[in-house]
Amino acid sequence: MDYCHAQDMMKTRVGFVLSSHVTVRDVSYQGIDTIRPEDNGALCGGGAFETKGCAENDCEASDVNNGGSDGIGSVNVTIERVRLNDYHYAEDSHLVGASVPGNYNCGTLNFKDECCFCKPNGVRSSQVGVWVPMSRNVEGSRHILVRNVVSSSTQADGVNLHGSVDDALVQTAYFQNTGDDIYAVWGAVMNPTNVVFRDSVAINPGVLRPNWYGNCVATYGLKSVVFANLTCRAPTLERPIPSPGDPKPRGSINIDTSMFVFHSSFSAGYPEGNSVKINGWTFEDLEGSSYRAGGGSMNEPAPGKMAWTRSDNGVVAPYQTDAATETSQHINIVVWGCADSCRLGYQGTSPSTPIGGLTNKNGVAHSIVQRGSDLISFVPVELAAGVLVVSALAALARRSPWSLRPSPCETQGLIAAV
């Protein structure tokens, strides 16, 4: 089937292509694809909602644009209060992750001659929830807002921002049961900037192609991105399928390896001065039990364990990166905040009084608040300039009857009780 290479997007890729200054609000959309076409393995889209751009994932591959558009990136697009692929979900949910005999012959890169997910999984869905394709203009797509979008399933990604993108916000979204990554930034070498994913949930990435490919959050090249207060629920897999052609053991497994994965594949570029900020996260298995660094594997995944890495500012967080080791690129990753229990503690479930702050031995800033008879330290979700104005010792000297204890998510022994 010609899906990415088709000359008529109207027949093969049903969905909305949104031009500039367009708002979609308060609608429900149901896709009916039950398979990811073989020529869409590297993803050319098929979103329920797309902005204007190229039909292929590389604009140089053909002169065909999506939906008969001019291929020029869209500006000022809002998609909010939308439900995706939920109409048939109750009927199809028993097929999510179900085994399909003969569907897992993925030992080589010759996918045309072997059946690597060549059979339908039966889960009626769109290919992608929201797809921002590579466009024909240098500026790309700009000022994109995706808010309050809920998706029950997709054959490929949940949200994918591809190519040149500036000022994109994905907020309070909920995506589950994808066949690929849930939230992805695929800039390649087009340097997307000012991209923010905030207060959103990702559950069970990759399950529509079981054991094959997908993580809650993934990047493939960017200039700047912020991930703020995201929740990921993903399983540890007993028998993931190795990807052929990848170096082993590193890189052979590409599904459910960590919460955030920063890739060097698919032409990913991370230019000098790139910036990744992770401001708070919640990382759990499908039953809601939290993953902990102590039970994981440092820097790369191991059987039955998620990967954790120490960030540039010394915080151990649930992410892995292959770009720094397999290419000369360095990704500048800074982590603030921690798991949801700590974030809620910082916001406060009982009256708290900010009284100061300190920097621990790893250079990580903490704020000090008084709650009842305790002085409690918290890693701030976002650190504003000038917040550290009172030293912890001075605060303790003034309030010697109180004790200083770490918040629940501080597992590094960074602050001792006094």
TrEMBL record:
InterPro entries associated with the record: Pectin_lyas_fold (IPR012334), Pectin_lyase_fold/virulence (IPR011050)
Record-given protein name: Uncharacterized protein
Organism name: Polarella glacialis
